[in-house]
Write a structure and sequence with these properties.
17% of the residues lie in helices and 43% in strands. With 213 residues, it is α+β, with helices and mostly antiparallel strands. The protein has 2 domains: 1-82, Elongation Factor Tu (Ef-tu), domain 3; 89-207, Threonyl-tRNA Synthetase, Chain A, domain 2. It starts with a strand and ends in a 5-residue tail after the last strand.
C-alpha cells in the first residue's frame, strides 16, 4: 500500500520507485513506496508534476496502491517526486470551497449527498430535510464570503473508524481524503454559478477565481 504523503500537504519528496511498466497507451505505470501525488478520487482531479523530471500526466488509486502514469521510463530505486504546486493549490481551493458550501447549506437544513470539485464542473448536491430553510444563490454566495473573511483555520482528525475528517474552525467536519487550504482566506472568491432543484435534489454549482502563488 502506497504511503500517502499528500495527506500531510507534501508537494515534493524523495521516493522509492518499486515498479515501472509500459502500458498499452504508451505511458509508463509507476508504483512508488510513498507519494506526494493526490490520485483522482473523492471528486478531485489528480495532481500532475514530475518524477525525476519525467512528466506525470495522471494518477489513480488501484487495489491500495497509487499508480502514476508517466510519459517516460523511470529507473527503480530512489527518485525525486515534485507536484505542480500552482495546480495543487487550485484544486485544494476548489475542494475547500465545496466543503464550505456544504457546511452552510447544512446549517439551513440541506444535507450534502454528493460533490465533485472539477475546475470546469464543480458542484455539490443536497437533499432537503423537513426543517429546511429557503436560501437563494445570492445569499449563499454572501455567506460564503463572510466565512472566507473570517479566515477559519483548517481542522483535521481521525474518527472512530479511522477515517480522516476535515473541517474549518468550529464548523462540522466531513470525512475526506482530499487536499485542502490551510485556512479559508486562501479560497479567495467563490462564485455560485448554478442553483437548481430537480427531482427533489438541489444542485449548487460554483467556481473559484484563479490566483497566482
Amino acid at each position: 500500500m502506497t504511503q500517502a504523503l499528500y495527506l500531510s500537504d507534501q508537494t515534493s519528496a524523495d521516493v522509492q520507485v518499486l515498479s515501472c511498466e509500459l502500458n498499452q497507451d504508451g505511458l509508463f505505470a509507476v508504483r512508488l513506496e510513498q507519494t506526494p501525488f493526490h490520485p483522482q478520487g473523492g471528486g478531485q482531479p489528480s495532481d500532475l508534476g514530475t518524477i525525476n523530471d519525467v512528466n506525470v500526466v495522471h494518477v489513480v488509486q488501484q487495489d491500495g496502491d497509487i499508480i502514476h502514469y508517466c510519459q517516460g521510463e523511470i529507473a527503480l530505486g530512489l527518485a525525486f517526486a515534485q507536484v505542480a504546486q500552482k495546480q495543487r493549490h487550485f484544486y485544494s481551493r476548489l475542494h475547500s470551497a465545496g466543503h464550505l458550501i456544504g457546511h452552510i447549506m447544512q446549517s439551513f437544513g440541506w444535507h450534502p449527498v454528493k460533490a465533485q470539485h472539477w475546475p470546469e464542473d464543480a458542484k455539490v448536491q443536497f437533499t432537503q430535510s423537513e426543517n429546511a430553510q429557503d436560501i437563494d444563490q445570492i445569499h449563499l454566495q454572501e455567506i460564503c464570503q463572510q466565512y472566507i473573511r473570517r479566515d477559519l483555520p483548517r481542522m483535521m482528525q481521525q474518527n472512530d473508524q479511522g477515517y480522516r475528517e476535515v473541517g474549518f474552525g468550529d464548523l462540522p467536519k466531513f470525512p475526506c481524503g482530499g487536499t485542502h487550504v490551510q485556512s479559508l482566506s486562501e479560497i479567495g472568491n467563490i462564485e455560485i454559478t448554478g442553483y437548481k432543484i430537480k427531482k427533489g435534489k438541489l444542485t449548487v454549482a460554483y467556481k473559484v477565481t484563479e490566483m497566482c502563488l
